[in-house]
C-alpha cells in the first residue's frame, strides 16, 4: 500500500493513468451522445406540436416511455436486449453466428434516447415561447417553411432553450456513470476498482468526485461562451 | 479460443492492478485450466451486476469470478463442480463484547452484509433478531464497520482475513464462523458458470479441475494466496 502520491501517480504504480482513461471514456461518451440526443429531441419536439394527431401521439408516447423508464433499465434493454435480439435474427439465417453489440454504442444509444426525451420538452417550451408572428413574418417576406425554421425560428429557439439544455448536459455528464454496469471502464468504474483493490475508498471516490466537478466547471465555461455568442441582443421590434 | 468473464475488483481472487494487469486466485486457476484444456483464453472484465446477463448475451463463454453455486443462479446458467469453497465468517470491532456468533449472541445488533450474496441470504434467515443492513459490495460495509456504524459484518473468511491485514482493518477482528453452514444456503462453493446447455464445456472444465487438483498445480496456486486450503472438503 503506497502513499497518496504513489496511488495517484501516473504509470505502473499509480492509478492516475487508469482514471484518466476513465475520464476520456466519460467525456467521449457524453460528447458522442449530445448531438444524437439533440437531433432526436428536436424532431420529437417538432412531432409533438405537429398538426397531425397521430404524429403528436407518437411523440408523446416516446417521451412518456423514455422519461418513465429508469436509465439503467433502458441501458440494459439496449445492451443485452439488442444483442440477444439481433443474434436471434441472424441465427435464423446463419446458425451459430455471434454478434457483439459494442458497449460504447449501446451506452450512446441508451443515454441518447433518454436525453432526447428530456431535450424534446425543453425544445417544446422554447417553441411555445416564439410568437406565431415570427413564422408569419418569415412567410410574408417569401421564405419557405424550411428557411423560416432555419433563419428565423432556430436562432431564437437556441437562445431560449440554452439554459434548459445546459442543465440536461450536466445531468448527462454524470449519468454516463451508469455505463460501468455494461463493462465500459469510465471514471466511476476505475475509481471503484482502485478503491477496492487498494482499500482506499475515500481517497478514490473523492478523486472521482473531483474529476466530475472539474468536468462540470469546464462545461460551465463552455456554456457561458455559447450564451454570450447567441447573445442578449433581442431583435428590434 | 475461450472468452472468460471476471469482475476485476475482488482481491485477492480477481482484481485489476494499478498497471492494468488482471491478477488473483481466479485468474491463476483460469490460466491453469486453460493450459490443461490446451485452449487459449482471453479475459473480459465486467461489473458484477451485469455479469450473468453478459454471459447469456454471449459477451464471454465462462464466468470465473468466485461465483457461488446457488439454485437461483443455476436456473439461469450451468455450473461446473466447485473450484473452491471457503467458509463464511463474521468480523467485528476489536473491543466487541460478542463472544460467539449464534442468533442469541447477535440479538439486537446491526450486521452489515453485501446484498445478492449467499452471506446476505444466510444472515437474513439466521439473525432474525438482529438488524441486517444490506450494502452493494463488501467495500462499503467494511468502511462502515471501521467507522463504527456496525456491530458485525458477515462475508467470506478469505475476504475478511485479507481486509483485517490492512490499516483500515486494524480496528477489527474475526468473531467466528457461524455453524452449521448449510449447503442449501451457501451452495457447494464457487464454480465456473457457462451458458445453459453447454454440457461439453462443463465436462471439459470439470476434467481440468480434477487434473490440476491431482498434479499439484492447484496446491501451488492455493499456497501463493492463502494460508489455509480454500478447496474445502473433497467430494
TrEMBL record, chain A:
What Pfam families does this protein's entry cite?
BPD_transp_1 (PF00528)
Report the leader peptide range: none
| Primary location group | membrane
Q: Does the keyword Zinc apply?
A: no
How is it placed in the membrane, per its record? Multi-pass membrane protein
Cellular localization per UniProt: Cell inner membrane; Cell membrane
Q: Domain of life of the organism in this record? A: Bacteria
Name all ABC transmembrane type-1 domain ranges.
23-223
Q: Which keywords belong to this entry?
A: Cell inner membrane, Cell membrane, Membrane, Transmembrane, Transmembrane helix, Transport
Return the InterPro entries for the record: AA_ABC_transptr_permease_3TM, ABC_transp_permease_HisMQ, MetI-like, MetI-like_sf
Q: Where are the transmembrane segments?
A: 20-47, 68-90, 110-130, 151-172, 202-223
Protein family membership: Belongs to the binding-protein-dependent transport system permease family. HisMQ subfamily.
Instruction: Read off the PANTHER family from this record.
Output: ARGININE ABC TRANSPORTER PERMEASE PROTEIN ARTQ (PTHR30133:SF2), CATIONIC AMINO ACID TRANSPORTER, MEMBRANE COMPONENT (PTHR30133)
The protein's name in its UniProt record: ABC transporter permease
Give the source lineage, highest ranks first. Answer: Bacteria, Pseudomonadati, Pseudomonadota, Alphaproteobacteria, Hyphomicrobiales
UniProtKB/TrEMBL annotation, chain B:
Compartments annotated for it: namely: Cell envelope
**Gene3D superfamilies tied to this protein:** Periplasmic binding protein-like II (3.40.190.10)
Q: InterPro entries, per this entry?
A: Iontro_rcpt_C, SBP_3_CS, Solute-binding_3/MltF_N
The record, for Pfam families, names: SBP_bac_3 (PF00497)
Which PROSITE patterns does the record match to this protein? SBP_BACTERIAL_3 (PS01039)
Q: Where is the Ionotropic glutamate receptor C-terminal domain?
A: 1-228
Q: Which residues form the Solute-binding protein family 3/N-terminal domain?
A: 1-229
Keyword terms: Signal
The family annotation for this protein states:
Belongs to the bacterial solute-binding protein 3 family.
Q: What is this protein called?
A: ABC transporter substrate-binding protein
Amino acid at each position: 500500500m503506497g502513499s497518496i502520491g504513489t496511488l495517484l501517480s501516473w504509470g505502473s504504480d499509480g492509478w492516475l493513468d487508469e482514471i484518466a482513461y476513465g475520464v476520456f471514456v466519460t467525456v467521449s461518451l457524453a460528447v458522442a451522445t449530445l448531438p444524437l440526443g439533440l437531433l432526436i429531441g428536436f424532431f420529437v419536439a417538432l412531432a409533438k406540436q405537429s398538426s397531425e394527431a397521430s404524429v403528436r401521439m407518437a411523440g408523446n408516447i416516446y417521451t412518456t416511455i423514455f422519461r418513465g423508464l429508469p436509465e439503467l433499465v433502458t441501458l440494459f434493454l439496449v445492451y443485452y436486449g439488442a444483442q440477444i435480439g439481433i443474434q436471434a435474427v441472424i441465427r435464423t439465417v446463419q446458425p451459430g453466428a455471434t454478434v457483439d453489440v459494442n458497449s460504447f454504442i449501446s451506452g450512446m444509444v441508451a443515454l441518447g434516447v433518454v436525453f432526447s426525451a428530456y431535450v424534446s420538452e425543453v425544445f417544446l417550451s422554447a417553441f411555445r415561447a416564439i410568437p406565431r408572428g415570427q413564422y408569419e413574418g418569415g412567410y410574408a417576406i417569401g421564405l419557405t417553411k424550411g428557411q423560416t425554421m432555419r433563419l428565423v425560428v432556430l436562432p431564437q429557439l437556441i437562445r431560449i432553450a440554452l439554459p434548459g439544455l445546459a442543465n440536461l448536459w450536466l445531468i448527462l455528464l454524470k449519468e454516463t456513470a451508469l455505463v460501468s454496469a455494461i463493462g465500459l471502464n469510465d471514471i466511476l468504474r476505475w475509481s471503484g476498482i482502485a478503491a477496492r483493490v487498494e482499500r482506499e475508498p475515500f481517497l478514490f471516490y473523492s478523486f472521482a468526485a473531483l474529476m466530475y466537478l472539474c468536468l462540470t466547471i469546464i462545461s460551465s465555461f463552455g456554456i457561458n461562451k455559447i450564451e454570450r455568442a447567441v447573445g442578449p441582443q433581442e431583435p428590434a421590434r | 479460443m475461450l472468452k472468460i468473464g471476471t469482475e476485476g475488483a475482488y482481491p485477492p481472487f480477481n482484481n485489476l492492478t494499478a498497471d492494468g494487469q488482471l491478477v488473483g486466485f481466479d485468474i491463476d486457476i483460469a490460466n491453469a485450466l486453460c493450459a490443461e484444456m490446451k485452449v487459449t483464453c482471453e479475459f473480459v472484465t465486467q461489473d458484477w451486476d451485469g455479469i450473468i446477463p453478459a454471459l447469456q448475451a454471449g459477451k464471454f463463454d465462462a464466468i470465473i469470478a468466485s461465483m457461488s453455486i446457488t439454485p437461483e443462479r443455476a436456473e439461469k446458467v450451468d455450473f461446473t463442480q466447485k473450484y473452491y469453497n471457503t467458509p463464511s465468517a463474521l468480523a467485528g470491532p476489536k473491543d466487541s463484547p460478542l463472544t460467539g456468533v449464534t442468533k442469541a449472541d447477535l440479538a439486537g445488533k446491526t450486521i452489515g452484509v453485501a446484498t445478492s450474496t449467499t452471506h446476505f441470504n444466510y444472515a437474513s434467515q439466521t439473525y432474525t433478531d438482529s438488524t441486517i443492513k444490506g450494502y452493494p459490495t463488501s467495500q462499503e460495509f467494511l468502511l462502515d464497520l471501521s467507522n463504527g456504524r456496525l456491530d458485525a459484518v458477515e462475508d467470506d473468511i478469505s475476504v475478511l482475513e485479507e481486509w483485517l491485514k490492512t490499516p483500515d482493518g486494524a480496528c477489527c477482528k474475526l468473531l467466528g464462523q457461524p455453524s452449521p453452514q448449510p449447503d442449501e444456503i451457501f451452495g457447494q462453493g464457487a464454480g465456473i458458470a457457462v451458458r445453459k446447455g453447454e454440457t461439453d464445456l462443463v465436462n471439459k472444465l470439470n476434467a481440468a479441475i480434477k487434473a490440476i487438483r491431482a498434479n499439484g498445480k492447484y496446491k501451488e496456486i492455493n499456497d501463493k494466496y492463502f494460508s489455509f486450503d480454500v478447496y474445502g472438503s473433497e467430494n
